[in-house]
Write a structure and sequence with these properties.
Mean pLDDT: 92
Largest sheet: 5 strands, mixed
Low-confidence stretches: none
Distance between the termini: 27 Å
Number of helices: 7
Helix content: 10-25%
Oligomer: single chain
Structural class: alpha+beta
Amino acid sequence: MDYRQRTLKESIDCTGIGLHSGEKVHIVLRPAAPNSGICFVRSDLPGRPRVPASFDHVLDTTLATTVGIDGCRIGTIEHLMAAFFGLGIDNAVVELDGPEVPIMDGSAAPFVFLIKSAGIREQNAPKRFLLIRRPFKVDDGNRSIAIYPSKELKITCMIDFQHPMLRNQTHELTFSGRDFTRDISRARTFGFLKDVETLKKHGLAKGGSLDNVVVVDEFRILNEDGLRYKDEFVRHKLLDFIGDLSIVGSPVIGHFVVKKSGHYLNQFMLRKLMASERHWRWVTFESPEACRENRVRIPVFGRLEPMAA
């Protein structure tokens, strides 16, 4: 049972392109002290401003999740945050010299590889879990997120787009680090060919290409290699949800039923949920025995040693 906090063993870096900005970005992941959380640092700005990865610092949810403070912004954080959550990383510093986390291949898998390559270190402090106590729901037309008490973290995600390849897809994940890495982390972001020119006219998707986005026209997938999973579209929406959920700052124990949601509704749900304290409580466990006594199955995040070369 992985009830202690985690950080990286050592720093690691990479360079990539921002999906929406189209700018080249260098990013460094560094270890951080217990109870410090995930924090972004803009190394290219005067004073190297810091922005906590927190739901109350979310500034924009247009096609991605952007956090910021005092004029400093960091966009498209959700894939990296999903990788941190999936591997149980509680504390890290993310330094970058641009306004957006690089898109890499459009999934969380490159970030999972980076984190495992750096190695994962257990810390001498217990994780804090958000335990759902009562059912909770938010609606936005035909979109919704419902949350139910559960002994473990489970996410049921559903999508239904007006497209023959994206109709009525559902995927359910009973969370573990292994299942996240194997079944969710490699799912790529996707978009529709008919929307590309409109997005670029509005200053978005400047860095998008078939190398980092699954593109579909009216009937088919344009990427030569096709899909990584038969239902890659809904798995990517589940990945996005995990990335957005992660900025609550702790692993969550509950069952989420996510219907046709996106970044806006994900963040709206978090703000409403955290403002309604009767629906949840914070819990910590000092030992595996304490977990069993509370009849809670906390997530198993996986191995601590670095990935083999």
